Amino acid sequence: MSTSEALSGEFPDTVDQDAKANKLASFELNQLKYVCRQLRNETQGLVLRDNELMFEGGLGQLKNFLCTVPASLVSTLRPVSVIPSFGNFHLLEDSSACEYLKVFCRQNPTFSIRVRHSWLDLSKARFFENAMVFALHLRKDKSFGRRLYLSPATHARYISWALEWSRGVQLIDNLDEYPPNFRVFPRTQSFDEMVLRRALHNDTLVARPMPGGIDAAIALASEVLEHGI
């Protein structure tokens, strides 16, 4: 059983912390800890340290998992990836979990979250428009849109869209910026450059020309793929 499979069980908010911890413990992958006390001490946190965890149950599942992790092991965690679900009307799926995770990331700057979002589809020209909305919502980054060479009217429309997920905030500058270790990435970890080039050529909805043309757009897509937003 893989680590991601082992940790894919859901921890509903109605379950108390002891029950969550017991369910997590039932999926123990580090069997070396049972050999002797020395190995138990030497391998403490081994599973968390040597595996990149994937949470397919959304941000709420990650929140519940972090509630079970001892503080002493948080620093051993590698970057975790999350596949969001969309039960609520929110850009990142669960606003209450987002708030918790933002605080957690600020308190634990060596820990990082990578949200693998389906809206950042590197096979479609609309990738750039959705990426701009994330840049505005998460980073208050108006310069991202200017890199796409959008008209002022188009830029204003996307600013309005980003604010829809901001609980009544009227100005981008008043948003609560996400910590730099809480980032959004494309769902896939690679992309076919030629597919994206064809999409840009064929999609009349994309605001063009971009500074530097399509080559600059491909470079921007590669940047988001590697570093997220």
Structure description:
- This protein has a 4-stranded parallel β-sheet with strand order 1-2-3-4.
- Mean pLDDT is 76; it is low at 1-15 and 20-26.
- It folds into 2 domains: 1-117, no CATH class; 119-229, no CATH class.
- The two termini are 32 Å apart.
- 45% of the residues lie in helices and 7% in strands.
- α7 links the parallel β2 and β3 (113-117).
- With 229 residues, the chain is α/β, with parallel strands linked by helices.
- The chain is built from 12 helices and 4 strands; from the N terminus they run ααααβααβαβαααβαα.
Query: What's the end-to-end separation, in Å?
Result: 32 Å
**What structural category arises from helix and sheet content?**
alpha/beta
Q: How many strands appear in the DSSP assignment?
A: 4
As an assembly, this protein is single chain
Percentage of residues in strands: 5-15%
Number of domains: 2
DSSP helical segment count? 12
Mean pLDDT: 76
Elements, N to C (H/E): HHHHEHHEHEHHHEHH
* Poorly predicted ranges: 1-15, 20-26
Helical fraction: 40-55%
Indicate the overall shape.
globular
Largest sheet: 4 strands, parallel
Spatial sequence of strands, sheet with the most strands: 1-2-3-4
